[in-house]
Amino acid sequence: MxxxxxxxxxxxxxxxxxxxxxxxxxxxxxxxxxxxxxxxLGAQGLRQIGSDRAHFQQCDLALVAxxxxxxxxxxxxxxxxxxxxxxxxxxxxxxxxxxxxGLPEIRPLCQWxxxxxxxxxFSPSCAQSLARQLAHLHELQGLQRLTTLLDILxxxxxxxxxxxxxxxATAATPDRRLERAMAHMQAHxxxxxxxxxVATAAACSVTTLxxxxxxxxxxxxxxxxxxxxxxxxxxxxxxxxxxxxxxxxQSGYPCSSLFYRHFQAHTGQTPSDFRQHSCLGKPTRGIxxxxx
Length: 292
What we know:
The protein is of the alpha+beta class and 292 residues long. The chain has eleven helices and eleven strands. The chain has helices at 92-100, 107-114, 124-135, 142-156, 176-188, 195-202, 206-217, 221-239, 244-250, 256-267, 271-277; strands spanning 3-4, 15-22, 30-31, 35-41, 45-49, 52-56, 59-64, 70-74, 83-90, 119-121, 163-165.
């Protein structure tokens, strides 16, 4: 299932660092309200962020925007060596507060982060240049750890070859009504959800909600709902052997034919082809979601 992951602080800070070493990475689609910066070392596999699904190589660096379903997936290495991941989770409001109370130098970083719609995949050269700092971040302590993190985040915005998933957006302060709408959709996407219902949950009019989707996400209610449903369907296809009709129903599609059309439009494959050609098969034990 699509998991809402609850993230705690790291050693009293307003951000969290997870250092993982494992033989493989299982498919584990989840989302959370924090940004997630993930460095993957020594693996080859599949990365899914929002509506984007792509293969990654030995040194991969990507940034996931808040509330975007995402997962990495990689099988065991041929040489049986471990895979290493450094995962940094942080909230934009923490950085904004720093900028407003003594660190105005990071305001450009805050504006850049606010412009990201689904995520960013950084260039191989950027990943290589920051890999050493990120790989050793968990070994640092105190102020040195914090300043190194800020240096890393500041460097990301200067990668001119970075690929923005769903395109770059105009910087905007997230609207709480839109956040409430997305939270309701993420909790109820498997039901016959309507725009009226979501607008009520967001405490705004339908017209206002349509405008918020258009202006802040460059998207629409129907597109975001379909994206959530297809992301969940991908999870079920990889993690179970149940039939496609069952997967469709569990993902909010009582009509299998509509599910087939939406799935192929979003992934470029039929559900059966997606399951058959998934390079890594069903999830196994390895790195698990660290929910609090």
